Amino acid sequence: MTMLILGHWATRLAAAAAVTMLAVSPATALDTVTFGTNWKAQAEHGGYYQAVADGTYERYGLSVTIRQGGPNINHPQLLAAGKLDFNMGGNMFGTFNYLANKVPMVTVAANFQKDPQILMVHPDSPYQKLADLKGATILISKAGQITFWEWLKKVYGFTDDQIRPYTFNPGPFIANKDWAQQGYVTSEPFAIEQVASFSPGVFLLADNGYRSYSTTIDTSWKLVEENPDLVQRFVDATAIGWVNYLYGDPSAANALIKIDNPDISDAQLAYSRSKMNEYGIADSGDALTLGINAMTDDRWLSFFTFAVDVGPYSQDLPLDRGYTLQFVNKGVGLERKQELLAKQ
Q1: What is the spatial distance between Cα 89 and Cα 217, in angstroms, rounded to a whole number?
Q2: Verdict on whether the full-model pTM lies above 0.85
């Protein structure tokens, strides 16, 4: 695995007050940060790689090492053990799990306003809306069964006898025209198109009421309390990285992604980025006015209430220790977004 580490901070130039020549200021040391992702490098991590590639982290005084995830890599555990400074959370259930296990971690930002989770169907299937899948056979992973599947049961009346195991092999879905399968709107439909030469119909759960934040930034309460300035700079620079990746030129970030994950194709990267923009995965809802990374108390409380109702979580969990709005909702990146859109 290739580590991406920023080099020395570029020397800053300052205009001398009495002369027209430029003078070089002393070099400034960078704060070293290690960040873990939730899977192998991909476009869904593009904002972080963009902030490395275009020097945004460096401009915020940070030297960032991105450690990609993958099979048998437990980054939440490494975060709790102090081996990572920040980690990419998958969804809000991860935050509730920290609380339930009394692990002093905290979510400080939500890169994705919409969870990319979908159910997909064959294009000629009779299922025209998500509710139509009640009673249908659906391929669901073990992780899905304890997260979004609980929401589908609660809201849409789905039942466990509909489930067939999803092992991340598209073969069973392709072979059975009346079956549905879980996936990410940015990933699995592309794989189906490549293998089976058809475009599946997709139901994005977030557009049907599923309100979990996704691709969160998690860290320790210790870091928040001892070095809030560093946390703020990482959150802000990441927001700028996402704006630049989604609305600017992603080529430099994609090149770094392919260094960490040589198996990913240019076509996959382009597809994933286009779907993130099409569906407003990172930039929609509150993010349109508060900036990428936005979070609200109402949304946290609403989803927590649901999770307590359907899951193993106690109402007594201290939700206010699971997340903080201290570092978000400041409009970071909104001006940069307008600059990039004006150039298109």
Answers
A1: 6
A2: yes
Tokens 């990285």, located at residue? 241
Please report which helix (H) or strand (E) contains residue 189, including its range. Answer: helix 188-196
**Six-digit token pair at 64?**
């960032």
Band (28; pLDDT cuts 50, 70, 90): confident
Quick one: pLDDT at residue 9?
31
Three-state secondary-structure class, residue 87 = strand
* Element at 65 (helix H, strand E): strand 62-67
The domains located in the chain, with CATH, are 4-112+213-343 (3.40.190.10), 117-208 (3.40.190.10)
Cβ contacts of residue 295 below 8 Å, gap of 6+?
107, 109, 110, 213, 286, 323, 325, 328, 329
pLDDT at residue 26 above 50? no
Task: Say whether pLDDT at 19 is over 70.
Answer: no
Mean pLDDT over 138-156 rounds to 97
DSSP 66: E
Q: At residue 39, what are phi and psi to the nearest 5 degrees?
A: -165, -175
- Euclidean distance between CA atoms 56 and 62, whole angstroms: 9
- Distance, in Å, from the CA atom of 140 to the CA atom of 160, rounded to the nearest integer, reads 10
Q: Which residues contact 93 (CB under 8 A, 6 or more apart)?
A: 146, 147, 212, 307, 311
Q: Is 204 helix (H, G, I), strand (E, B) or coil?
A: strand
